[in-house]
Task: structure prediction
Amino acid sequence: MTDNAAQHHVLLRTDEASLRLEEYLLYQETFEAVDETTQPGMFLIAIGLEGQSVWKLGDTECKVGPQELVAFSSSADLKVRRDGARPFRFLLWHFNIENMRIVRGALGQSDSVDAATCRTKGWPMAGPFKMTADQQSLVLSLRCAPATPLRALWYGAKLLELFAILQPPAVLEKHQKSGYLHPAVQSALAALHANFASPPTLVAIASNAGISAPHLSRLFAQETGTTTSRYLRQLRMQRASQLLRTGECNVTEAALAVGYSSLGQFSRAFRETLGHSPGQHRRMH
Result:
């Protein structure tokens, strides 16, 4: 990676570089995703935050956008380019191939891996797929690690947590191939995104979709991997985090902007989602 291709911020790098997490802003067209510091046999997870991208290995390409996750085996030929005028912001997680058996088990894959070249039968190894609200919440917390000597252990635990909440590939493939979500779930998602500060009730959303609220609740959990209330809280915390990070709002203003009339409830929700208070989050940035 060259400085004129992308800006990057190192969130974690262990001494032996076996675990590394970096945030990138790709504002020119292309750079090599694997550099000289990437050890042979590393496994990569790319997490899209903003903008669009195309990842390429040889003649094979895959697109990754906001709130999408994709997993690769490392290769010197792996490249990523911005897709469109907007810069592409993403997280890139590197970890050692020794963890591959655990990772591939979590991804539901069992084909052999050549540790010398880190080549597999499939590329990419998993994804890209849209992250669930639980996965998005975990990703949001990665920028806010506690400032302790155990930061590497904390990030390692987060990596394992991500594996634990990955949806089974068979379920993901069903939605990827069909591009299908139940119309009632689509309606609920649209309503929550459009009105997260003052959302309609589940009963109102269900009524508008022509089904009962319990039925919608079951469908939503089945197809998104979370509940409507947890999804709503994730939307609110993402927006609050952005407002605090950019300095647009103080804590009280951010709470009101995302629909909380109680500062105490907002602070509890924020801490449960990101692992620290909104005041700490504002001071960190």
Observations:
- Residues 106-121, 168-179 have pLDDT under 50 and may be disordered.
- The beta strands are 6-13, 19-26, 30-32, 42-50, 53-57, 60-64, 68-73, 79-82, 88-96, 126-130.
